[in-house]
């Protein structure tokens, strides 16, 4: 499978100028190609293929108006055209129902705070013996190597984010690292009060990184609003706001990585509910939904399960996980959100709302879990009318034992 390894880059002043020139040329090549296709569509002509766009790009570098495109690596410009093809493919696949719908490709602006360029193997980039990243027409960039690459990377993408930081993202092919098999399986119920509730009874509190940083973010945003538009001070204030948001995003990402890795290592199979985060983000809970970052966390669980040989299952978002008793399976209808614990009227089990939902998530995914996954206690029940025997068919079922959650 293909993974990306990102490292912080610290370019010198001259290298920052060379990168800015490469970012600008890649943007112009993208916009020129998009304009050609848009004009062709408006004129009722056939869709312009990629090979024709590449020929026109090569020809434009020989004109006085676009001669400066030759000052950067040609691979950067060609990869920009590949990005345009990917944008069109995603748009058409959305129309065909192969993926979620998305809008058509849009023109890039020079005012975009996030820029990126990509180098493939034929660009001649390499990692020097001094552990620096050598890029054509840019130079040797100093990297902060936080870990080793598992294999030789095929491409490298240099990214400048909104906070003014530079990163090098390497695409590498990795083999599966099968972890030793373990017995536990787990269902996960995602929430806001508790970020995740596991079917074994554990509850992970929500760190609420954005809520905790709101005071600092508010002050930085107020400082930005007082600066004159177009001034250097406004640009500096905007960078401070972006860095404050980047700090929150980095902390949230680190939390997701640590929790997802621990869950994958401890369990042979993981089941989660396919929540509509986009739809929930349109409600009054939008800020809390975005602060939790459910989609990013579930994506991490999915690719880590594939990498380490674990089983990952998504269940439908319309499964009544909060309406079904995890002990006897009786569906007793929806319950208001303020009800966090109740007693099943059929079997007498005392159920915790979140743990009950987590167990039902695992059961809906076809995973065999213990009754409600947590420690249980037995309640007194009437004796069986027929004499107990040694035959399996005469043993009481889980619903007849009166098991209840602690």
Main beta-sheet strand count, sense and barrel state: 7 strands, antiparallel
Please count the helical segments.
10
Structural class: alpha+beta
Count every beta strand, where a strand is a DSSP E run of 2 or more residues.
Answer: 16
Distance linking N and C termini: 43 Å
* Element-level helix/strand string: EHHHEEEEEEEEEHHHEHHHEEEHEE
Estimate percent helicity: 25-40%
Q: What would your notes on this structure say?
A:
The structure is a single chain. By secondary structure, the protein is α+β, with helices and mostly antiparallel strands. It is 38% helix and 19% strand. The chain has helices at residues 13-42, 50-60, 74-96, 209-212, 214-225, 232-266, 277-280, 286-292, 294-308, 353-364; strands at residues 2-10, 115-119, 126-127, 132-135, 139-144, 155-160, 166-173, 185-190, 194-198, 203-205, 269-273, 311-315, 341-343, 350-352, 376-378, 403-405. Helix 5 (214-225) packs antiparallel against helix 6 (232-266). The radius of gyration is 28 Å and the shape is elongated. The two termini are 43 Å apart.
């Amino acid at each position: 499978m293909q993974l990306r390894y990102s490292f912080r880059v610290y370019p010198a002043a001259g290298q920052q100028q060379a990168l800015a020139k490469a970012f600008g040329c890649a943007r112009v090549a993208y916009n020129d190609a998009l304009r050609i296709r848009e004009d062709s569509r408006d004129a009722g002509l056939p869709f312009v293929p990629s090979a024709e766009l590449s020929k026109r790009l090569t020809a434009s570098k020989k004109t006085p108006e676009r001669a400066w495109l030759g000052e950067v690596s040609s691979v950067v410009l060609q990869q920009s055209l590949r990005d345009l093809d990917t944008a069109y493919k995603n748009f058409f696949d959305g129309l065909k129902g192969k993926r979620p719908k998305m809008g058509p490709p849009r023109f890039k602006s020079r005012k975009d705070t996030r820029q990126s360029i990509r180098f493939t193997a034929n660009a001649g980039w390499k990692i020097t013996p001094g552990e620096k990243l050598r890029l054509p027409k840019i130079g040797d960039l100093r990297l902060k190597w936080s870990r080793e690459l598992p294999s030789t990377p095929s491409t490298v993408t240099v990214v400048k984010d909104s906070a003014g930081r530079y990163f090098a993202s390497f695409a590498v092919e990795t083999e599966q690292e099968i972890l030793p098999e373990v017995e536990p399986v787990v269902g996960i119920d995602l929430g806001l009060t508790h970020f995740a509730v596991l079917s074994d009874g554990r509850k992970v509190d929500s760190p609420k990184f954005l809520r905790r940083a709101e005071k600092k973010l508010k002050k930085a945003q107020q400082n930005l609003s007082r600066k004159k538009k177009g001034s250097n001070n406004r640009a500096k204030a905007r960078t401070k706001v972006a860095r404050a948001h980047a700090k929150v995003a980095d902390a949230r990402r680190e939390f997701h990585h640590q929790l997802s890795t621990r869950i994958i290592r401890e369990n042979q199979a993981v089941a989660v509910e396919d929540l509509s985060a986009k739809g929930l983000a349109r409600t009054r809970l939008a800020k809390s939904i975005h602060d939790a970052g459910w989609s990013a966390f579930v994506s991490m669980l999915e690719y880590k399960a594939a990498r380490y040989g674990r089983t990952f299952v998504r269940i439908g978002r319309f499964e009544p996980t909060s309406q079904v008793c995890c002990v006897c399976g009786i569906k007793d209808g929806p319950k208001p959100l303020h009800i966090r614990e109740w007693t099943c009227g059929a079997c007498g089990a005392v159920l915790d709302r979140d743990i009950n939902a987590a167990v039902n998530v695992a059961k809906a995914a076809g995973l065999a879990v213990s009754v409600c996954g947590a420690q249980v206690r037995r309640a007194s029940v009437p004796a069986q009318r027929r004499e107990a025997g040694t035959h399996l068919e005469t043993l009481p079922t889980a619903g007849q034992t009166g098991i209840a959650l602690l």
